[in-house]
C-alpha cells in the first residue's frame, strides 16, 4: 500500500499516515473498495453474469508526477473555454503547495483518478486573475456582487475533479482533510469558496423556442452542496465546440454542457459534510 505523507511538524516528517479511502472515525486510515460490475461478454451460458473487481485507492499529496493527469482534469473543469486559461500554470500553482489538497491513486506512480484542492484568489498570479475575471464576466446580473465579494473577502477557488467512474464517496474524506490542512497552514483563512460545477442542460433538439428545464450535475454530490450556496449562477461556454447530444436524432431534446458556479461560505462546510455523509450513506 502506498501512503500519503502526514502534514506533520519537522520532527514527525519520517512518519507517514496511512490515508486510505475507508470511511472510518480515524481520519488517517481510510480505505474505499471500489467495486466494478462488468458484464461478461462471452457467448456461453454465463452471459450477463457480473464480475466483481475490487480496487484499493489511496490518498496522496499532489506531486509533479501528477501534472499531466491533473491538467487533463483541469481542462475538463473549463470545458470548451479551457483555452482561455493557462491550465499548466494553474497545475503548477497546485503543485507548489503540496501540503494543501489530495489526489486519489492506486499507488505512488499511477495517474490520479481524482483531486481536490483550493487556490487563494489573493495570490499575485496571472492564471488566478484569469479565472476570477472569467467568472465575473459569466455571472450576468450577479457580476457586481461576485466582483465585490472577490475584492473584499479572502476567497478560495475550490477545485474538485475526478474521472467519471470514481465513486462520489471519495469527496467527503477529501473535503474534510482539505479543511484541516487549510486551518494548519498560513495564508489559507478563506471566508468563501468558489466551486464551478460541470453540468448538462437540456436543450431543444432543433432550433425552436421550446423551453427545456432539466439540468444534470456531472458530479452527483454537487446537487447537495448547492443547497448551502450563498450565490449561484449558471453560464454557458463562450466557445461551444460540441453539438448537443441528440441534435442529430429524432429525440425532442438534447443535452448541452454548461456550468454552475457556487459561492459557499466557510461556515457551511460542516453542514455540507454532514449532508454528504447522509446522502452517500457513509
What this model shows, in words?
The chain has 282 residues and is of the alpha+beta class. The chain is 26% helix and 26% strand. Strands 1, 2, 3, 4, 5, 6, 7, 8 and 9 form a 9-stranded mixed β-sheet that branches. It is globular. The two termini are 23 Å apart.
Summarize the structure.
The protein is α+β, with helices and mostly antiparallel strands. 26% of the residues lie in helices and 26% in strands.
For this entry, give a set of tags.
alpha+beta, 26% helix, single chain, 282 residues
Cα separation of the termini: 23 Å
Unreliable residue stretches:
5-47, 244-251
Give the overall shape: globular
Give the H and E element order: EEHHEEHHEHEEHEEH
Rg is 20 Å
Helix content: 25-40%
Mean pLDDT over the full residue set: 80
Strand residues, percent? 25-35%
Q: Largest beta sheet, briefly?
A: 9 strands, mixed
Query: Helix segment count?
Result: 7
Number of strands: 9
Helix and strand content put the structural class at alpha+beta
Amino acid at each position: 500500500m502506498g501512503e500519503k505523507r502526514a502534514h506533520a511538524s519537522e520532527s514527525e516528517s519520517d512518519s507517514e499516515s496511512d490515508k486510505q479511502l475507508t470511511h472510518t472515525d480515524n481520519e488517517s486510515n481510510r480505505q474505499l473498495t471500489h467495486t466494478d460490475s462488468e458484464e461478461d461478454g462471452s457467448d456461453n451460458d454465463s452471459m450477463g453474469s457480473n464480475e466483481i473487481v475490487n480496487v484499493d485507492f489511496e490518498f496522496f499529496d499532489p506531486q509533479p508526477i501528477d501534472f499531466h493527469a491533473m491538467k487533463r482534469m483541469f481542462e475538463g473543469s473549463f470545458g470548451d473555454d479551457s483555452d482561455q486559461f493557462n491550465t499548466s500554470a494553474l497545475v503548477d500553482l497546485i503543485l507548489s503547495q503540496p501540503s494543501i489538497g489530495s489526489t486519489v491513486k492506486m499507488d505512488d506512480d499511477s495517474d490520479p483518478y481524482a483531486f481536490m484542492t483550493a487556490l487563494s484568489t489573493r495570490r499575485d498570479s496571472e492564471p488566478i486573475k484569469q479565472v476570477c475575471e472569467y467568472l465575473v464576466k459569466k455571472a450576468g446580473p450577479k457580476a457586481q456582487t461576485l466582483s465585490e465579494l472577490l475584492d473584499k473577502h479572502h476567497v478560495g477557488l475550490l477545485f474538485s475533479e475526478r474521472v467519471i467512474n470514481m465513486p462520489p464517496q471519495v469527496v467527503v474524506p477529501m473535503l474534510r482533510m482539505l479543511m484541516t490542512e487549510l486551518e494548519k497552514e498560513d495564508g489559507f483563512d478563506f471566508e468563501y469558496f468558489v466551486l464551478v460545477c460541470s453540468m448538462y442542460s437540456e436543450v431543444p433538439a432543433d432550433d425552436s423556442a421550446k423551453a427545456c428545464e432539466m439540468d444534470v450535475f456531472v458530479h452527483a454530490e454537487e446537487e447537495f452542496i448547492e443547497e448551502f450556496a450563498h450565490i449561484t449562477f449558471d453560464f454557458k461556454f463562450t466557445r461551444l465546440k460540441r453539438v448537443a447530444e441528440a441534435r442529430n436524432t429524432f429525440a425532442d431534446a438534447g443535452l448541452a454542457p454548461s456550468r454552475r458556479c457556487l459561492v459557499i461560505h466557510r461556515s457551511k462546510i460542516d453542514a455540507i459534510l454532514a449532508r454528504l455523509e447522509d446522502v452517500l450513506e457513509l
